[in-house]
Design a protein that fits this description.
7 helices, 8 strands, hydrolase, N-acetylmuramoyl-L-alanine amidase, MurNAc-LAA_cat
Length: 230
């Protein structure tokens, strides 16, 4: 009897172990991705926040690569399409505010798209520019204290930043708080603005135009979103 039980145990141990399933997001977790800017700026004015008399241009065309000449609006759409695929592979519901560059969607309207879809997370993709060409690195902007979604937005910002920061091949510059951004002030959902790097810095510009680097960066962003959803 003992010998028989031992043989059964050995047989069980020899059986191949089943791979654990990849965790799926919480049911109906919706992410709205906003590829920043568009091909042509719209300098017409809109309120910076609900009820505000302070006005701001509806949307700009963004910056461009100091070496590559690539427009920011092209880069952000490329990154958004990569991130969309990565998130859909992880069973998230994903909506993009735009699928092409020749559009006219203001920053207020982009936030309203996220509100309409009752997004669990609103990801805004951008790249930065500076008069100082030595400034480089990935960083995140998040709504300042006092915004209704400050706490949730900061939580998402932290986990996404941590996921990117783990990769030592990517320069990172932390998280900043802003109260003057139209897309934040009109958003009724947790919002994170990702500055992927500085297009005015030669190294960042070349990296962001490298498909492998951009895919790696968006993979880390997706990992952060998964961590936020847990």
């Amino acid at each position: 009897m003992i010998k028989q039980k031992r043989q059964q145990l050995l047989k069980k141990e020899a059986e191949p172990k089943r791979a654990l399933p990849t965790p799926s997001p919480k049911k109906n977790f919706t992410i709205v991705i906003d590829p920043g800017h568009q091909q042509h700026a719209n300098n017409d004015q809109e309120p910076i926040a609900p009820g505000s008399k302070q006005m701001k241009g509806k949307v700009s065309s963004g910056t461009s690569g100091v070496s590559t000449g690539k427009p920011e609006y092209e880069l952000t759409l490329e990154a958004a399409l990569i991130l969309e695929e990565l998130l859909k592979d992880r069973d998230f519901d994903v909506v993009l505010t735009r699928m092409e560059n020749m559009v006219d969607i203001s920053n207020k309207e982009r936030a309203e798209i996220a509100n309409k879809h009752q997004a669990d997370l609103f990801i805004r993709l951008h790249a930065d520019g500076s008069n100082d060409s030595s400034v480089k690195g990935f960083h995140i902007l998040t709504p300042a204290e006092g915004h209704a979604m400050h706490k949730q937005s900061l939580q998402a910002s932290k986990v996404i930043f941590t996921a990117v920061q783990r990769d030592q091949s990517i320069d990172t510059n932390g998280i900043s708080f802003r109260s003057d951004i139209t897309g934040f002030n009109w958003s009724q959902v947790p919002t994170v603005l990702i500055e992927m790097g500085f297009m005015t810095n030669t190294e960042d510009d070349h990296n962001l135009s490298d498909p492998a680097y951009l895919h790696k960066l968006m993979t880390h962003v997706a990992e952060g979103i998964v961590a936020y959803n847990k």
